[in-house]
Structures are given as C-alpha cells and as structure tokens.
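Annex B.
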Amino acid sequence: MKARYPIEYRFLKADVARRGIAGLYTATAMVAVLMALVDSAWAQDTRAQRAETNAELPLTGEELLLDEVVVVSAREQLSQAPGVSIIGRQQIEMAPPVNDLSDVIRRQPGVNLTGNSAGGQRGNNRQIDIRGMGPENTLILIDGKPVLSRNSVRMRRGGERDTRGDSNWVPAELVDRIEVLRGPAAARYGSGASGGVVNIITRRPEKQSFSATTFANIPENSDEGRTYRSTIVAGGPIDERFSYRISANYNRTGADNIDINQSATPFIPVTDWWTGAPVLGPDGEPLMQRDQVAAGREGVVNTDFRGLLSWKLDERHVLDFEAAWSQQRNIYAGDTLFSDVSVSDLNQELARGGHETNRVTRTTLSATHRGKWDFGTSNTFIQWENAKNRRLGEAEAGRSEGIIDSRYAKDRKVITLDNVTAKSEWNFPLNIVVPQTLTAGVEFRGEWMDDENMTSGQEFTAGGGVNTVGNPELRNPKSQSQLYAVYLEDNILVTDKFILTPGLRFDHHSESGNNWSPSLNASYALTDELTLKAGIARAFKAPNLFQTNPNYIYNSRGNGCPYTYGGPCYVVGNPNLKAETSINKEVGIGYINEAGWNAGITYFHNDFKDHIQSGTTPVGRFNNQVVYQWENVPKAVIQGLEGNLIIPVHEKVTWSTNATYMIESKNKTDGQPLSLVPKYTINSNVLWKATEQLELNLGVTHYGKIDAPTVDFYTLRQAGNTRSRSPYTLVNVGARYEFNENLRLLAGVTNLFDKSVKREGTGNAAGANTFNEPGRAYYISLTGSF
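Ferric enterobactin receptor: predicted structure tokens.
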C-alpha cells in the first residue's frame, strides 16, 4: 500500500510533463566528478526494473519510483510551495497577450509591471516586478535556460535601462505554460532571482502537426498603437528516434502618438535649480508652468525563428538541439530620461516619423541531455546566447541624457554581450531512515561584453583611488565576469504528513566574491485538505558589468547631483561592489478538496541588504566636480500578503481570484519605496464553458494606490511632484470558439470600460504617474491547424 501524502504531493504520471520545470542546468566537467562519486555507492542496487517500469514517463527528471512510493525531486516539491503559480495554455488563450507575455504574467499573485527604477524613468518600459523587488531581480527562463539579453542595455544612474526586459522573446502561440516562482522557492536559481523566477515553457508536438495563427488588437483611441501578429508552428516525429519543431513569428505593435499625454501633463511650480525652493511671483504666489509632455508607449517589431531537433538515443536518454534567432526593433515614441521630445527637433522628427532608434538581436544555440540512469535521473544543458544592442547615439550627460544626439544620429553604437550558461542537475532516490530524493547540481555562467560606447566618452581622471582610464580612446571596451555554483537539496518525507526540503547553494562570482545561499522549505498536512507551508532562503544578485566597470562614466550638469556637495558631478563604475542579498521568508496555509475548491493565504517578508545604486558619498574630484561611484545601500525591507481562491461555481463555471497586499516596501536609509507598485492588487476571473465549442471569460483587475517618492533620487532634495497614482480597475472579456478540431477563433475586448491612465512626466516630475495604461481595445485571433 502506498504511503499517504498531502494532496498536492500526489502525482499522476500524466501530470508530470505539465508540472515540471524542464531543462535544468550543466557544467560538463563537473558532471563527470558527480557521476564518479555516486557510481560506487549505487552499483549494488541499480533499480533497473523500476526505471524500466517508469520508462513511459516523459523525461522530465522529476519523478522516481522508490519502494512503491512516489518520490519527487527537490525542485518539483518546491514548485508546490505557497509562492508558486502556473499559467496554463488555456489561460493564455482566453486572455491572450497583446505583444509581451508580461500581459498574462501580471495577473498572478505578487506580480506587477513597473518601470525599472523607483524614480520613474523609462516608466513605460514596464517589466515583471515580483513582490516589489524590481524587474532587475526577476530572472526570466525559457525552458529552464536563463535569458540575459537585457544586460546588453546600458544601466543609467537610477538603475533604469531602456529595455522591455526579457519576457518578449517567445510568441504566445508557442507557449505551453508559464511557471512563476516567488520567494524562497526561487532562491535555488542563483543570481538575479531574489524577487522571483518566470519560466516560459514551450510546446513540444507529440504528433505531426502544423498551425498558423493571426492576431490583431485594435485600440479604440487612434492615438494608441495597433498590433498585428502572425505565427506558424510545425513539428512532430520524423521517425522512431527523431522529432522536430520549427516556428516563425512576426509581431508589430505601433507606437503611441507623440502628444498622447498632453491632457494629463500638470502645471507645476517653478523652482530654484539650486535650492529646489518655489519661485514666487509679484503677488507672492508660486509661479506655475506646464510640465513637459512625456512620451507614450514605444512601439516594437518582433521577428522570431526557432528550431528544435530531438534525438531519442534509447528509452532512457534524449538529446535536444535548439537554435533561435530573434530581433526586437523599436518604433520611437520620443521617450527620454528627463525631458520631453520638444527639447530636440531631431527627437520630434524621429518620433513623429515612427523611426527605429534601437534594436536588440538575440541568437541562441543550446544542447540538452535528459536521462534516466540506474541510480536516478539527470538534466544537463549548455547554452550560448549572443545579444547585439544597436542604437543611435544618445547624449550622456545632464538633463539631455537619453535624447538622441544630432552629433551621433547617423552612428549606431553596438554593445555585444555573449553569455554561456552550463548547468547539470541530478536526482538520486534514497531510503535512508525515510524516503527522500537528493538533488545535486552545478552551474556556470559567463558574461563577455564589448561596448563601443566606452571609447567615445570624455576625458576623465578622478584620482582618489578611482581607476578610470583618462583618455577614452585608450579605454578597454571589453569587460567580463564568471559565476561558478554548486548546490545540494534533499526532499525528505519525514512522515506521511511532513515533507522537509533543506538546501544549500554556493556561488563564486569573479567580481563580487563568494555567496552562500542556504534554504529550508517545509510542508505539513494538517488534514487531507489543509496544508501548512513555510520557507526561508538567502538569495543574491551579482553586480552587472556596467556597475563594476570603472570606465563606465556618467556626467551630470548639476541638477542630477546630491545637493549636499553642490555643482555638477560624475558617477563611475565600482569594481569593489558586493552582491545584493536578501533573506526571503514566507509562511502560508492552503486548502484543496476533491470538489475543486482551492484557497490559500501567504505572508512574505524580504530583508534586502547591500542594494546597489549610484552613490551619494564623494570618492574624489575632477574638473572641480564631485565624483561618486555605484555603492551598496545598507538595508531595505519588503513584506506583504498574497491570497488565492478558486470556486467551482458549477460544473461548467469556475471563479478564481488572487490578491496581493503590500504591507511595506522601503529603503531603510531614506524611507523611499524600492519599487512603484500598488498598495494592493486584486485579479478576479470567471470562466464559463457555455457549450462544447464555446468558452467565455470575464477578467477584472483592480489596482490600489501607488505612492510616489517624496525625495528626488538624484539630488536628495524634496521631490517636486509627490502625486500618487489613484486606484483604477480594468475589465476584460473574451471568447474562445472551436469550429472544429482544425479551426479556432478568439475574440474579446480589453479595458471594457475604457479606464485610460496617462503618464504625467519623466523621472520624479511624474510622481507615481509614470506610465500609460492603454484604453479600450478589440482583439481577434484565428488559428488553423492540421
């Protein structure tokens, strides 16, 4: 008789492929060492019969048979932690993303979209922000492999990049499911996962198939950009050993009109540039002026080609070879860091003409081995990722920073980033006192950057221990870093009710040194339907190649410098930075019954240490200007609540709701928010299977108040605009109709009640009103397959 497990710990074989996070990691040289260590220990008991019995399962490396008990890997048990959610294929089809998968992911508990700095610069470049830790602390994976192309975009002083992030490299039609891991469950993935992990898992055709999809999204407001998308996917078995998949995608989303935010631009007081104090008029009242009009959302053109060849060596071993080429080209809307487009005739010309000012091309090659051995299972891969970031030259200093510079308008500066990731993970079933599965893994990540901008900067000699090369023509445009990691986890069935998952990861980063990341997760079945879960883990993020490079220079004309020391200033890279770290804790209780009810609530608390930001403490002087470096901020704290509820209203109607409440999110040094996220977020959805052919969907999302920073991030003065973002609600309706097994129609309306949200400025001038939320739009999609 099988042992009794909590409900979420029982797995049907058919569910394994749906649940696993495929493609975990390699370092080929260290794999041989691991195999040598375990070979002698397992030579006497090969469990070959059990492996043969289990051979029909998909090779996910997640489930093993041990003494008639289903024992899963540590990774798979962590996927059942409270801070984990899975977005299935049906959810994606019923509420399809317009362009970026972040449109779907944002509806999960703990997830919002934010610009990539708390100051609001580049606010319309909204990316996945998990539990308020910021987009830079969200690690994106495709089939378990890291996506790091956004690191090829320069990081500005406020921590912002002019990038859409890394969630837009896979077309929606190719996605099987998306796994979102938050808190302690994400810490096992190493650098960059302090906030969470988003794993985009692609579809693998089991039989010969071909599909073609067209999609259109038409906003009611003609000032907003339209979207058109076409995707084809083909694949299936070639013979008994080989199968393939190829796909092609083209997606074009237009840019917003240059004047879309004109009506939302507020009048603000005229302030003294030095003191920040209001300037008074003859009547003694503050002088007012209309602030500069901020740009709307930028357009994007996506082109994507992918190919996969799978080779089944035998019943136990499979090799996958994959290649992909993707490109994102922008359609300029006029966005800058600090100013509107009117400050430059060239910017206006580029924006009104819908020109391209930057493009990122991403190329990947990878090989993956998934195996079943006499002693367990393994999953090993190696991936090369090349990102080329080409963009028109931009001004690099002061208020004009980020504006296309007429001196360089015909030059395209290129930043080339090569990433090599190798990872291997092995699962060993044990029965030492109690059933358990030991997971051992090794990982390597290498980054090599060649930045053409390095040799076109200004002369600079700071002294005071700042090792910047004075002559820009002599600066080395190349930089690099390497990370080596090893980790162990054990999924222990202490009793038939109590599961304990301890883990330990060690990372050595060539620039920031060593990091230990211990973790402990536990699950206890209070009853057959009620389970208590808790976890604690230490997570980290290594500094990026811009932050550690002493030749990466920013120059402010004065308005962007801490007023304490006055005048213009420089900010340069700091090779002595420590890694950001956080202690992530969560505890939750979940209820699931056989009738389909599912409810839970989770409390999370993150203590953030050594957060990296541009410095406020002088390290030298040059040209009579103060010099700062990137530095580690001592402490920050984030805490909140997440809840979920699924109600089977009827056999054909399901109602699901999740909510997030942010109790606290602030830098303990200055009391400012770490990320501009709503105080609370509620996502509710009703799915009705009206007929065998027709499904209807109603989705409602309510965003609470977003508080603005009260202190200007750059100058440390009182912020000129502290207006919060008022609460607002978005309602979406959609339908899915299957004419037959070969033809499917999707249609719907987003933002049904046309709650349009406008951006009010750039940087701190916008307060918390840093982004555009598009108004009512209509979409339709048709898929034909055979």
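Helices lie at 16-19, 28-39, 48-53, 74-78, 89-94, 102-105, 345-352. The domain at 7-407+416-785 is CATH 2.40.170.20 (Maltoporin; Chain A). Further annotation is deferred to the next reporting cycle.
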